[in-house]
Amino acid sequence: MTLLQDILSYNEKFVSEKLYEDYITTKSPNKKLVILGCMDTRLVELLPKALNIKNGDVKFVKNAGATVMHPFGSIMRSLLVAVYELNADEVMVIGHHDCGMSSIKSDETLKKMLDRGVSEETMETLNYSGINLEEWLRGFDSVQENVQNSVSMIKNHPLMDKKVPVHGLVIDPGTGKLDLLINGYEDDQK
Q1: pLDDT by residue (tens digit) across 58-87?
Q2: CA–CA separation, 173 and 59 (whole Å)
Q3: Which residues take part in binding Zn(2+) (predicted)?
Q4: Residues 38 and 62 sit within 8 Å (Cβ to Cβ)
Q5: Which residue of 26, 73, 88, 150 sits 20 to 30 Å from the alpha carbon of 37, by its own alpha carbon?
Q6: What does residue 103 show for φ and ψ, rounded to 5 degrees?
Q7: Helices (H) and strands (E) in the chain, counts
Q8: How far apart, in whole angstroms, are the C-alpha atoms of residue 72 and residue 89?
Q9: Per the annotation, does 187 bind a ligand?
Q10: 12 — pLDDT class (breaks 50, 70, 90)
């Protein structure tokens, strides 16, 4: 059985036995919070449990590294939609220790792409078109700096409501311990 078949088979049972009823909620977050977090597998269940978050409590936006890379990219768009359309009154950026993005080397990732069939011509075309693939795939050296940069980009975005607190935290993916980097309630945050 393929992974897809396994998932679809389980889903059929999930629906027929009405297991979804435990998760029924509205589309607006009960705690009026949107969280930008990392897609790391260790955080799928740990992060909500460590924050006492249940289904329906928050909006989750996830990507590699909990990073806002571009002020008008899809991450920032999702955060703005959460604030203006889905009633989130606060934003929380949560990075984590031992993040894969802190060790990623763009040249190695590009080689893996070539090894899996992406053509050199495609990469040259993208680079010629102004997309610096080395920079685009670059990770970060410090999770703390990455969280601080993302918080700053969100807080200072021209379309973000200036009254919305933007917090920055780092979680330990082994224990769930949170370290507060930026308290968004403090007025002196930039």
Answers
A1: 999 999 999 999 999 999 999 999 999 999
A2: 20
A3: 38, 40, 96, 99
A4: yes
A5: 26
A6: -120, 0
A7: 7, 5
A8: 20
A9: no
A10: very high
